[in-house]
Amino acid sequence: MPQISVVVSADAVAGGPDTRARQVDFAPAPLIPVPFADSARESAGAAPTAMLGRLAALPRERLESFVAQNPQLVADLLLRPPTARDVSSWWAGLDTSARFDLMAAAPQLVGNLDGIDLSVRDMANRRFLSQQIAALEAQLDSGVGRGVAVAVDGTLHMLEEIAKALRTDAGEPPRTLVTLDTQWPGRAAIAVGDVTTADYVSFLIPGMFFTIDGQVGDWADTATVVYEEQNRWLDRLEGKTDQGRSTVATVAWIGYQTPHLLNIGSLSLAEEGAIFLANALEGLQSIREGDQPHVAVLAHSYGSTAAMIALQDSGFQVDALAMVGSPGSAAQSAADLAVRGGKIFVGEASGDPVVNTAFYGSDPGAPGYGAKSMSVAGGVDAITRAMLTGSHGHNEYFTPGSESVRNLALIGIDRADLVSVGGDPGEKAGKLLLASR
Prior knowledge:
Elements: E1 5-9, H1 10-14, E2 21-25, H2 37-46, H3 48-57, H4 60-69, H5 71-79, H6 84-92, H7 96-105, H8 107-111, H9 118-142, H10 146-165, E3 175-181, E4 187-192, E5 200-205, H11 212-238, E6 248-254, H12 268-287, E7 294-300, H13 302-310, E8 320-324, E9 344-347, E10 372-374, E11 379-380, E12 387-388, H14 403-412, H15 427-435
Parallel strand pairs: 5-6, 5-7, 7-8, 8-9, 9-10
Antiparallel strand pairs: 1-2, 3-4, 4-6, 11-12
Helix pairs in contact: 2-3, 4-7, 9-10, 10-11, 11-14, 12-13
């Protein structure tokens, strides 16, 4: 595999003001025996935090060899990671040199540990992505059998789709790669805007049939649609950004394997997704200690089921939850979900065959569940006087210019008072807002 060099801002890695830059080289390291590899493996099984400490203590050459010889150990550590707070404490205790060495030798690990600053994770994940793409291209160039070539080419295409989804044009908000699993079918989360400083952060959770290979770019674009809608509302409600108004960020989160027709009947993928999502939410709260943003989860279809599992019996809370096209809840009622102030909303489009099925337990759209209804039917916005399109069927909830996107955006910026519940969109709230001016 060819060497890949990346110039890294020392300021981001060190966590302090430092205008220097450092080149991190990704040449494959020779395999050097690691004397205490067995004890490191034992630490990984017993205490993930202890494993992180042992890895950080290794000299860079030995660290690279250890990671190269034990890829499954790193993968297992990411499946059963330390808590986000433990990761934050561990990372804060490392000096700049140790952080650079870890990023160079184990970018996959650094890039996917919740509790590390997202700008650092973005750098690590982009490097690992480049590494993997180069390695797969080299494997194809070396000549492999037809069956292997098909598998390698499929994975390569998936990673190239992630790389495409990260590209932005001039004037567009930055995108950050905060989660990356390069093993087919992959996992990824791309943030739009600056999650580390935003006043409002919305996580968009997709449902069935969403794959990294097929939809990672589309989902990142959808996050951009919600991001732009939220900014338009904040411009209207608070003024322009140069006047000191609030800021937003959205996260296109495909951090779990979504189901297809052959496994849609099981909750296993939702339960797995709930663990990953809970880790991501706790990770955000950990890195924003003392400066917590308003956090909203905006979930579609099977993703809403995963989100509700994540919010049951959790050790944290979010500020709002909005679900569209939900097939059901393992929780018995909205009161069982860790959402502050009961700000839980449900949108159901006409002709959507999934809603009201309660396929996975309780129906979150039923009056007895305790969630608030959110209109997605379309009409004239009573505040902006814009014509809003309605959502129909199961897959139109995130259409730009729709009443659904309007309401999801408002929920994400803590303006539930302006969410329309039927009839003329926002009619009551609009009259109150206009009357207050």
